[in-house]
Amino acid sequence: MLMKKVTFLASALLFSSVASAQIFSDDFESYSVGQYVGPAATEWTTWSGTEGGAEDAQVTSAQANSGSNSIYFSSSDPNGGPQDVILDFGQAYTSGIFTFESAFYVDAGNNAYFNFQGTSVPGTTWSFNCNMENGEVILDDGITANLAVGSYTPDTWFTLRVEADLDLGRWTASIDGTCIGVWQNGVNAIASLDLYPIENSSFYVDDIWFDYQTNSYGLNAAVVGVSDQGRFIAGEDVYPLVTVGNAGSTTINSFDVTIDYNGSQYVENVTGQSLTTNNTMDVQFTTAIQLVDGQEPIVATVSNVNGFGADENVSDDGTCGTKTIAVTPAPGKIVVSEEGTGTWCPWCVRGTVFMSQFESDYGSDYWAGIAVHNDDPMVVTEYDMGLGGLITGYPSALVDRGNDVDPSDMLNDFLDRLVTAPDALMTNGATWDAGTRELQVSISADFQTAGTDGYKMICVLTEDGVTGTDADYAQANAYAGGNNGEMGGYELLPSPVPASQMVYDHVARAIAPSFIGNNDCFPASFNSGEIITQNFTFVLPAEWDETKVHIVGMLIDPSGRINNADKTYISEAETNGFVNACNLSTGSIYLNQVDDVLNIYPNPTSLSTTVAITLNEKSSVQLAVVDMAGKQIAFTDYGMISSSTVTMNTASLNAGVYMVELIVNGQKTTKRLVIE
User: Fold this and answer.
1) Where do the domains of the chain lie, and which CATH numbers do they carry?
2) Confidence of residue 617 (pLDDT cuts 50, 70, 90)
3) What is the tens place of the pLDDT at every residue in 538-564?
């Protein structure tokens, strides 16, 4: 029983300069309604390989783009599925031109999702993701969001087409023949289609096909991508970067690149090159383009290739779908990103890369980044537990404590918050005693509007340039080897990245008075123009480099969101001046290297371990053991001591990681205890 229409066409029927290999298509007209596609044809299967059941797709006549049949996907499960259907492309394509096209019908109020797998074994490498919801199609490669964005009409059939020039790394997408994006994909390989309904999915698929061809153009320049190479701030000058590639067999020596933006054209003449087949080069514009507020298309086009004007394939000469997004920041606004990360987390290098990029782009003026570590030597238990209750996994990020997003997807939330006028303008002040290493911080909120009780303040200390020699400072790295695409150079590093090669920035070191803050310093109501100040005191460990410590003072509004912030180095806060006011709390400190104060051995252990406490003078000392859920399972108050050595029976503890917390005169020191 034939369930597929597989057609072999001569290249002359397609493109005069392209050699065609095969076209596969399926319009589902050969199937019976209710039939599962997996058992009927070798090309269709499921993620697990189990066909003909809940994981498979059935043919329906409820909707059709052509004829009377299609296949239907739906899910109400928060985790998606159970349907998970694979269309096997027959091999993993890494060269040539691969084209995929399918018709989709997304029910109003619902969504649709699919992805491409980059290797023959599903679950190894994702090439890209496609989400369809609320009339919008969005493609990402798991590294960069919004690679292509287009629109569709719910309850209406539309055709999505993706073409990948795998030789050049140029990918394009179109909806109903209209281009919606041109980009360089993070994973430049294609092996299968995965149709997977996520929660609230309801969609139909019809007229699906793919085509593989080899490229045989002669003179052919292609624009692979365009970036405005600047911050998304209206009024600022940017110098676009355009990536041009040779998609033909003739070496390219010269060409022109034109940028169209906001009604004006900017031209860069490129000469004296020797761009060979399947290689690319970046063209940095020397003429500045001033960004305007809002979203404006920016289109790059290559022309006059080798002085001949048009080349042999004009279809890849330009870009589409790319828009510059520029905003006018609200005066005095600082946006805070809190990133959940850990050295054990292989995907968390993505957070490291994007936090670094945000620091480079916005950190000096508009942004404060805080890396909140989990289950590694840099953990601040209270901060980790607070953030952990608001995120669903690692890496994750909260922008002004809004929705949980991937660190690679912070931009839209950041821009939304950046234009939101804050209720108060924030100023950090400080005094610093280098001898005692005592840091006194004042956080002042100059309210621009009247308010009532419900506001809170939080003071966070972060440190850049943190290193360690312990093996737990080594960073797990999912991008090692490059199978998951480029990621800021981590694709060139091993997994784990040795501790000796890792330097951690934005590391949360202390938070006070708590993760949610405290409103004891706020009056029941206040007027516009009132300044409310709160004081915090910290004693910085000797291991910290105070020149790399940032003070992040945050105002929490009654809804629990971060309303505004100030980020300063200690020296900058000293220049602002310390304001003596309501002194609510002493900061909780996590010591980076605590062996001189708190030593635990053996560690790891199983039956028992010794805890040694060594202090320079008599102090108030308490010791607690906390599990990773935050539950305190042991506590001892030693009163006033200068040293103590105790044996702890650990035979009753389950295998896992625990935190041993030493509190000295109200200052907390934390160290991991591993039970085997």
Assistant:
1) 5-215 (2.60.120.560), 221-326 (2.60.40.10), 335-589 (2.60.40.10), 598-675 (2.60.40.2550)
2) low
3) 999 999 999 999 999 999 999 999 999
